[in-house]
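Sync notes, pocket subgroup
Present: LS, DG
LS reminded everyone that the earlier model was apo-only. Rerun requested with uracil included. Inputs:
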Amino acid sequence: VEEARRAAAAAPTLEALREAMAAYDHCDLKRGARNTVFSDGHPAARLMLIGEAPGREEDAAGRPFVGRAGQLLDRMFAAIGLSRTSPDAETALYITNVMPWRPPQNRDPSAEEVAMMTPFLARHVELAAPDLIVVTGNTACAALLGRTGITRLRGRWAEAWGRPVMPMCHPAYLLRNPEAKREAWADLLEVKARLTR
Ligand code: URA
């Protein structure tokens, strides 16, 4: 973790951070991954979204949230006027994950793996400097808020690294539990309201 902290702090730009992560050799997950998945979308976006880890499709593509969960994510944010392909920071979305490498069989990243990569994530947030952060799922809650229990945390603003954080259910969870989409919609409206006030 100490080494991760040093490498992250030494990166002056997002591009340098991407290179520092790709060169970081202390996380076992890297050995089984095809790509270091860094981010997608507009780095100057007012909203930054943080997921868990790449799945099979993300690992192959080298981009976060390109599979089924990612398609749902895109539809959800399109509904409040935000898109990762927008060139305008006001309506753009910037997306990353806690882990840049796919865990074997898509298992949850361990607490140790999350702790090891969190200095990179904190630096990523600092360099992107979003106004608001959305964390989806328990892994991202653990990394930013030090807590899990997304069904209780969702829908209420929290704070991490000096920025407002909205916890939401993960889109992969919403695919399995469509009844939870109502709550996710309420959370999205809350994010939209805070962006426009
Ligand atoms: N789930 C995530 O948390 N992140 C991805 O990039 C894809 C699926």
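DG: The two ends are 38 Å apart (CA to CA).
LS: Residues 75 and 109 are 26 Å apart (CA to CA).
Action: DG to write up.
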